[in-house]
Amino acid sequence: MTKQRGQLMTTIESYESKTKSGVGVSAQRPDAVPKATGEFPFSSDLSSHNMLWGQTLRSPYPSAHIKNIDISEALSISGVHAILTANDVPGKNLFGLEHPDQPVLADDLIRYAGEPIALVAAEHPEIAAKAIKAIHVIFEELTPLIDAESSITADPIHPEGNVIRHLKIDYGDPSTTGDLVIEGTYEVGMQDQAFMGTESGMAVPSPDGSVDLYISTQWLHSDQNQIIEALDLPEDMVRLTLAGVGGAFGGREDVSMHVHLCMLALHTGRPVKMVYDRNESFLGHVHRHPAKIWYRHHATKDGHIVKVEGKIILDGGAYASTTSAVLANACCFSTGPYRVSSAQIEGWGVRTNNPPCGAMRGFGNVQTCFAIEAQMDKVASALGIDPVELRLINALEQGDTIITGQKITGAAPVKEVISSLAGHPMPGPAENNLLARPGGTGRTTDQKHIKRGVGFAVSIKNLMFAEGFDDSSEALCQVHDGNVAIHTACVEVGQGFITLVHQIAEEVLGTSDITVIPADTSIGSAGSTSASRQTWMSGGAVLKACEAVVVKLIEQIFEDEGVKYENLDGTLVSEDGTKTIPVAEALKGRSFHEKVVHRHAPTFPLNNKGQGDAHVSFAFAAHRAVVDVDQELGLVRVIEIATSQDVGRILNPLQAVGQIEGGITQGLGLAVLEELVMKNGVIQNANFTDYLLPTALDTPPIEIAALIEEPEPGAPFGAKGIGEPPTISSTPAVVAAIRDATGVDLRRVPVRPEDIALE
């Protein structure tokens, strides 16, 4: 159930639960029904008295000089209240997630098609759109730099140069060779997060010159830090509150309209709302990095991978965003979940005049996993070894060392993940059913032309932030007369954290009278809802805050009664064992206010050879895809995707399954459907008509063969993040199945009909 408290406008919500649902239970999400029925207030539902509408003028060119901007005609339009350009940015005209390198508004040089140039605030969206068309900009068009590989040595398109990061990993003896050498070059196209709810938000100014921003995001405090620099305001004058998020997947980690909204609100003195349409959303957020990857694998005759050489080029687009970290992940895990004795990996993350790329589910691992798993299949074929057996031979185990020199000290049930999936029953033979055939009801496929293929893939994913980042999360637990309120800045993007808060608090405090206070910047940072970290970090913070309440409760009882109690699974037991009282009962009539900051074990930057304990923990997953292919027509039907995954400990089985199914579907999209098509640096399919997403008709049955529960040391309740691994190895599994069916050496995703169709 949901209950709204102290609601501002239509979006700020608190959630309450009265259902018994501790850790390990499939507790129902309190936001599930409202989201399913359309009653949930998303950020696009924001409204306020005297509200203006904001819109953005964007560059049509990927590379150009701005020679002149004429706003006079637009300003004369009735209902237009403000038109702002780079000259109106109060503070630094720069922002950026990892470091500021991107203009709030372009002032001279355009570096990608879609770059913001001017802002309009008007009484109505149609008036704002009319004003946008009336702004006259004179451009000097330049030749865009669109090839990532060429960018490494090309003339710089940015003051900081084209190479965002160059990373080398040198592990083991470089002179190592194998009996078999397999080479391959692979490409990954640009994928979009494609969340259903576009970017939207509202800024509300105050008479004292401060501003409140209600925004759909993934990281409130990072947003705040970037905004205050651009506005030249102190932290306490820019307050952020989370508005309802309609999906994220990494695309909301970067600032989009945030500064623009605040500028317009402060300039006009009125609330300003912005909602991107779908086309602008494609332009307004980062995407998955396109990649070019070359590998050379060395193997012994008995199937041991002894050496991997690789070169990885990631196209970061016009600005840095998270390219440095994405490249680090791509390189660190460029040998997959496999044991090797030698690795020489070189990677570049570069700037081009393509749209900016940054965080997306899987974060660097997706690109390299596709190439690694293709290489593993080639090695298996060349040696005459079963592909599953080859993976078992080389699977990492606890105590092994990855190519950064870091020892795996936590759970690493890689063999269990592989074996449990390999033993799962296969689907039955192809149905003589139109809907089950490639092409569906188009009735174009002849049953006798259909070939079946099976593909297998395994992945590794690091959890939490890495390379020395001070990763932390703050949580507050307030108790008054048995009623519990939990406050964190953790962003609920649909992963189910609100539910988990209830479960953790109920597990520790024994009560279902729990309210989750809306996430905002009045409490310390929770970090980003990304990197599979929030269960560990913000869940850990909530756990510690609740435990701190119990400690204070025991102390208070001792002061009042002179009796020492111990907490045994939610029941206070006196030292002599004669008295017991449930924690929930003992909390009645008492008040507590406990705030804690939770951190994980430290990590360290990679050295100049790519060595170091850069990561906290690792998770593993395996996927098996079964496909039917009509090669004459280039049509593919994915019949089933099965999976086994290393999950640490499952805190909510229902949510775990949902995360896995969603991640697999996103991986399926990259395998055969999703790609932002570029032409001379300009997106050609910035809409959901031409950008192909998996629908219910494309999504096959998803079989969970096993969820391997091996608690992770140091993690709250032993749980691992679940949301990202499903995306990583589902893509190569589907492509491997298509290879198996067709015999075509597929080296690029997504696989297009023309890639497999017979000539």
Overview of this structure, please?
- The strands form seven sheets. A seven-stranded mixed sheet has the order 5-7-3-14-11-12-13, sandwiched between helices. A six-stranded mixed sheet has the order 1-2-21-20-19-25, covered by helices on one side.
- With 759 residues, the protein is an alpha+beta fold.
- The chain contains 17 helices and 31 strands.
Write the CATH homologous superfamily of the domain at 411-455 and 619-759: Aldehyde oxidase/xanthine dehydrogenase, molybdopterin binding domain
Strand percentage: 25-35%
pLDDT < 50 stretches: 1-19
For the record, give the distance between the C-alpha atoms at the N and C termini, rounded to a whole number: 57 Å
The fold-level CATH name of the domain at 411-455 and 619-759 is Aldehyde Oxidoreductase, domain 4
Number of distinct beta strands: 31
Tell me, briefly, the overall form.
globular
Mean pLDDT: 94
Largest sheet: 7 strands, mixed
What top-tier CATH class of the domain at 411-455 and 619-759 fits best?
Alpha Beta
The spatial strand order of the largest sheet comes to: 5-7-3-14-11-12-13
CATH architecture of the domain at 411-455 and 619-759: 2-Layer Sandwich
